[in-house]
Each structure stands twice: as structure tokens, then as C-alpha cells.
User: Fold this.
Amino acid sequence: MSYFLLIFITVYGGAHLYFYRKLSRAFTLSLSWRLVVSATLILSTVSPLLVRTIERQGYSTLALGVAYPGYLWMAILFLFLIASVCWDLAAALHQLQLLVRSRPRRNNPLLRRRQFQCCLGLALVCAGYGLYEAQAIRPEHVVITTPKLPTGQRLRIVQ
Assistant:
């Protein structure tokens, strides 16, 4: 269990660090804003563990109050990460193309800001759509018969 927690915190914390790096490269943040963002991202990193701890203590309502924003942020961060990594790969290929053609490399700070805003906007739109669709989940019951199960035995699979 401790290996799982170590791997989880490392991967999830790394995703938060990537987000912080993208944010700080896109915008010039004052020291106070860097501290606020850092504290928020650290709290977000440990929020799934915090939810589980609060739930074990018997405070299920408080756990839900922490879980909803924590897991929503997890979805937004994951979507941001995917969009941003795809953008970074496309930019790296473009830079390689410029290098092959011996053209000068341009450093455009507005492009970093635009990339961050586009990736975050896309993540927010996708997460919002996911929230909307989650309100309309309808269970579907499918009965499958197979001779591989003993007669009279039922097996329930939930996905």
C-alpha cells in the first residue's frame, strides 16, 4: 500500500508541477500569487488522500465536500495535461522542422500564454461537458447466457 501511495503522490504531484510550470511560464506571477498557487496545488495533490482519511473518521458529508472539488480538479488537470502534452509535441516537431530548414527559432511569450489558455479552456469545456453528461447516466441491463457457467449460477458484472 505504501508503494502505491508513493507512486500516486509522485505521478499526481508531477502533474501539478507540470501545471505550475506552464502557468508560471505563461504569466508573470508575484511572490504572493506564487505562494497561493503553490499551496493550492499542494492541497490538491493530497486531497484524494485527505478525502479517504476524513471518510475513515466518519465524516462522510465533509468528505463529499472535499471530494467533489478535488476530483473535479483531478479531471481538469488530466485533460489539461493531455492537451498541453499534445501541444508540446506538436511544437517540438515544429521546432525540429525549423532546425532542419535552418530557420531561426522564435521565442514568443504570448504563444506560451495562448497555449496555456487554450489547453485550460479545452480542459474546462470537456470537464463541464462530462459533468453535464454525468447527470444523465442511465443503467443498461444486459443478460448474457453462456454454457461456461454452471446451471443456475448467476454472475453479475458491473462496469
